[in-house]
Amino acid sequence: QVCAQLCRRPCYCPWVPPRCPRGSPLVLDGCGCCKICARRLGEPCDFLHVCDQSQGLVCDYSSAPAGTGGTCNFEDDEEGCEVNGRLYRDGEVFQPSCKVQCHCLDGGFNCVPLCREDVRLPTPDCPYPRRVEIPGKCCPEWICAAQDQHLPRDARAAPGAVSPLLRYPCPEWGTEWSACSATCGLGFATRVSNQNRFCRLETQRRLCTARPCPALPAALPVSE
């Protein structure tokens, strides 16, 4: 009866398929007629607007009032994570970029950097090491610069804060870490500090997660 009410034959579909957001593939609707964007985790769904089965999602009507649509959820009721439009199961380890590895856990995720944050001190054969981005490689690497560059002119003495390349102490100066760039999910915090071997002011970044991103609103009633 549902198919007879909602599915029309022959099919009448738009000439141009819809443009789907990242992580939402084109699939056939519930009538097997027209191509639509598969619904993602937490999005509303019904008989026509199907969930992304490739991500293990089904339309969950358990918490929906009778006669209304459901919400896309994992078939085994496991919690998952959505990052940059992609869905990950609870416990799954993934890499949103080559520099970061994340772990989906209890609806949120934790990430750790994959690039080494080591410090290379000056040596006789490399007096001015510098870390640069190398084309074709993910993580920056150390190179030996030809000469040192602009040292701060206003550095004043501070006991116990001598840089390996400076003949005078370097007073510690820096700002507090900023708020996370993303209100939910993975973001970056920044600060300005001179705590480096050249006693230069530089912008530093670190990964942060304020909180997991909330699920999308519940489904609206389906109009017949």
Give the total of domains.
4
| CATH top-level class of the largest domain | Few Secondary Structures
Average pLDDT, rounded to a whole number, is: 76
Q: How many strand elements? A: 14
CATH architecture of the largest domain: Irregular
Which keywords apply here?
Complement Module, domain 1, 224 residues, 1 helix, Omega-AgatoxinV, single chain, 29% strand, three-stranded antiparallel β-sheet
Task: Please give a structural write-up.
This protein has one helix spanning 2-6, and strands spanning 26-28, 35-37, 44-45, 57-60, 70-74, 80-83, 86-89, 93-97, 100-105, 108-113, 129-132, 141-144, 186-193, 202-209. The radius of gyration is 27 Å and the shape is elongated. It is 2% helix and 29% strand. It folds into 4 domains: 1-76, Omega-AgatoxinV; 81-113, Complement Module, domain 1 (Ribbon); 119-144, no CATH class; 173-211, Thrombospondin type-1 (TSP1) repeat (TSP-1 type 1 repeat), CATH 2.20.100.10. The strands form 6 sheets. The protein has a 3-stranded antiparallel β-sheet, with no helix packed on it. A 3-stranded antiparallel β-sheet has the order 8-9-10, with no helix packed on it. Strand 8 and strand 9 (100-105) form a beta hairpin. By secondary structure, it is mainly beta. It has 1 helix and 14 strands; from the N terminus they run H-E-E-E-E-E-E-E-E-E-E-E-E-E-E.
